[in-house]
Amino acid sequence: MSDAAAPVTLVIFGASGDLAHRLLLPGLGTLLKAEPDLRLTLIGASDLYWPQERWTELVSSVLPAGGCPTERVHKQLGTTRYVRLDVTDPDQLRAFLFELTGQIVLYFALPPAVTMKACEALARIDLPAGIRLAIEKPFGTDLASAHRFNTLLARLVGEDQIFRVDHFLGKETVLNLLGLRFANRVLEPTWNAENIERVEIIDDEALALEGRAGYYDRAGALKDMIQSHLLLVMAMFAMEEPARLDAVELRDLMVHTLRSTHLWGDDPVAASRRARYTAGTIQGRTIPAYVAETGVDPARETETLAEVTVEIRNSRWAGVPIRLRSGKALGDGVRGITVVYRSVAHQPEGFRNLAACDVLRIGMSPETLELVLATNAGGDRWDLERTRLAAELGDSPLRPYGQILSGIIQGDPMLSVRGDVAEECWRILTPVVEAWSDGRVPLDEYHAGSSGPLSWR
């Protein structure tokens, strides 16, 4: 929990955008509910003209979505304001920052290119002592730009004041990986290539573009989801045991895992697939083809479904394919981690059938845990069948963005992405980005509402 005695000024750059409305403010609502004594001044800033009433209306309507009590919302409204600001103008930034008090947090809810320009502007002024910068992903657009961005940020503040935000690290299921792995003797000894045949980390969603062409059509599924979110989940899943749960230990082990990660067979063509949705139906809604969505440029050939297979080349994981997949407008909406165990080395004679592989499923949305084992069948004791042991995991009182904001406010970067971690994620996928750009991997198609291209099955 944060220090309730220390006042905090949270500035959201890009406050008029979708991220603030859909995720940041509802997440803040859960934090304000969990920490009712938090002394927070909330300032929204963007280059659009908004009357104060419009910002107040937004805050008052969205904070309760995170469960923030009415009296806490009213209290927060008394300390919130909206500022029209060009974040790329050093003079405007200097005047704006000079008026702020308390622990200052600048949250860049902006496109990467604008965030970069804003940080270049900050480099030209004297920053308040102890200021913290929260940077939304993606961190750059490729390895070279990510390195340039990290170099720029290092000129502004120390690494402990930089919070590269990836909200997947605030998801309860991802955090539960630590307890699941390291607090259970039944699992930890089997968490290796000797016992595990393959791993799948999938985040498919039924939502289509939903008006996000401005960002998504320039990013696509590979950069939007796999490059950041899923590689980080994989690192948490596969890393070695930490001596303690703190920012140094956890992120050291994550980057160690990522440095050992390579494309399967070192072949970006064979190890990756991409596709784009055509028109279809999802839950009774007619979905237009991606190329027909407003704001989409078909010539970009942006993928809405991406799949990459990697291998972690160390003594624990060598030889285990890890499939990372994410897409939009998919009917099944599978979101989670699937661990498929190897078959038993020997099965006694006398059973009528071979046992299927044991499977562990860790659901991310909803948060579930399922273990599928081979057992004797009820009808015939010499038949083997599959038995499922399932549980729903308890929800955290904080949404992922509430969890992330809590860490930023209390100055704990454990759940933020360190600069070297961000660069390693780009390093892993750079050959795929280049192969797709060169047209060496075909762009397949699938109907909206399906589970993906027929040829992928």
- The H/E string reads EHEHHEHEHEHEHEHHEEEEEEEEEEHHE
- Identify the CATH homologous superfamily of the largest domain: Dihydrodipicolinate Reductase, domain 2
Under the CATH scheme, the architecture of the largest domain is 2-Layer Sandwich
Please state the average pLDDT score. Answer: 93
Question: Can you offer a commentary on this structure?
Answer:
The protein contains eleven helices and 18 strands. The chain is α/β, with parallel strands linked by helices and 457 residues long. It folds into two domains: 8-165, NAD(P)-binding Rossmann-like Domain (Rossmann fold, 3-Layer(aba) Sandwich), CATH 3.40.50.720; 169-398 and 416-456, Dihydrodipicolinate Reductase, domain 2 (2-Layer Sandwich). The strands form three sheets. Strands 7, 8, 9, 12, 13, 14, 15, 16, 17 and 18 form a ten-stranded mixed beta sheet that branches. It has a six-stranded parallel beta sheet with strand order 3-2-1-4-5-6. β4 (103-108), α5 (112-122) and β5 form a beta-alpha-beta unit. α6 packs antiparallel against α11. The longest helix has 26 residues, at 213-238. The mean pLDDT is 93.
Keywords:
457 residues; alpha/beta; Dihydrodipicolinate Reductase, domain 2; ten-stranded mixed beta sheet; 11 helices; 18 strands
